[in-house]
Amino acid sequence: MMNRSLSLKVLSAVILFGAWEIAGHIPVSFAFPTFMESMGALMRMMGDGTMLDAYAETLKPLAVGIAISAVLGIAIGVWVGLSRFFDWLFSPIFIVMQAAPLAALIPLLILAYGIGLTSKVLVVCIMAMPVIVLNTAGAVRNTPDSIKEMGRSYLATDLDIILKIIIPAASPVIFAGLRLGISAGFIGAILAELKITPTGVGDIITYSRSIADYPSMYAAIFSIILLAVLFLNLLERVEAALFKGNQRGYASD
Amino acid sequence: MRRILKKIMVTVTALPFALGLSMANADTIRIALAETPSDELAAFFVALDRAKANGLDYEWTAFADEELAIQAVLSGQMHIGFGTPYAAMQRSKAPLRILFQLSKLKFFPVTTKTYSKLEDLDGEPILLHSRGGGTDAIANVIESRLGLTFGDRSYVPGSANRVAALLGGRADATIIDLSNKNKLMRSEAGANFNVLEMFDVEASDEALFGNLDWIQQNEGDVQIFVDALLSVYRDMHEDPTIIRRETDPDGPIGQLPEEILAELDGFYADAVEAGLYDADGGGRTAAMADLEWYSAAGQLEGDPSMLNIEDFWYLKPLDAAMQ
Fold first, then answer.
1. Among A201, A211, A217, which would you mutate to test the B interface (most chain B Cβ atoms within 10 Å of its Cβ)?
2. So what's the ipTM on this one?
3. Contact (CB<8Å) A29/B76
């Protein structure tokens, strides 16, 4: 007997893919393939190595961008949360970054940083970092004063308070920010590959579209969504392992 | 709560009907442009104005790229589109047909002075528009006809951007369109570059296409449109300046900056001289050239001589207009 959570996941996947299959058969558009056709294309591309090559290319800006955003984002976020001055200094930058219509600003990025990896990493960072910073800062700022005071009365140093009280207390919201930020980073990576120069998965999407190979196009889109979901699940495991007893349950459970 | 739900249900069920009705009533031709209106579309808009004078009711939407325009026609949101959807016609089994060849694939290999003929580019990197796009196809055909292989292909969409890359020294060889080639070679920087000699290409770059069912249901409107296009193309070949003169100052082209409008005469004179447009709207000659070209370029599968042009072109309106 499967547990309830897993069976619900399987059920919703079956409903979604079933609806996709039916929509492809109607068809809603000549440009919309069925689920099975798309999966066939996905298998073919995984078999002949196209997908592997594409991800080798796409994961470069994605991994670098997400790593920078996560490390720097949490560090800046903690800092901003702890100090009013840095809040005043940095928060506006990230709020503007979050609100900026990035797709429209891409020509500006190309102007400044060219069409190479730098621009793509920047797109990922601009998408991912603001949520991470702002969530972390908010969580750190809202650590209950009472437990900080308790720490101080047990003669904890400032570093102890940050590492043993503030960060664990803030961890659920920091991780919520990480999840949102990383999903935005995935969007950013594909956006960069569609808007700057077509490479990797973005290239499969544009190329398949230009030769009307729609199953391959949707297979590429499906694969990146799948990767994002798997990665977010992994992140959840990491959180559970690192901050046991602190997580408060998520919709994806 | 229940009342709100009920209201929502009523709206949701009524909405498609309301939209459907309003669409059915509107007898407007919806045209999907593959780019925002620019000097290259001036002749097309002159034709639209002539068609409007003959009773054609139209509205246009500019899409960000050709593939989106094709998809909008495929899904039925747009009636007539801009582009060369050969791959979509063959692969998706959609009943799309081309009506009129709007422009030919006139592109020019431009390189630094290091190279003086196409053969010199064997093994050399080249900058192209996009994988699977028109310039990529040209590069494929150059390779197969001259028996050479280009080195790394990198892709930068837009001829103007590729010229910028060339000027910035980030590329030594690229393929660009007529107007950018002329601009570059007539500028002071032109002395640093070569335009390599290339074989003539008769295949279409942009063509007008629509859904066959829709075309057959709207023969009258389609005929007005094709008549207008053919008349403009013929007049343009006699006198390229009619485009500037007939451009509606309040239309999308007339609203372009004065500097662009001032160059319209030059643009169309160059284009007619270089054979960018076909005075007869392409027709069978263009269809045959396209099948051969797009097969060689990898967009069409199968032996081009076995392909039937009737599966890709709907020639009736053009034939009628020619008479």
1. A211
2. 0.72
3. yes
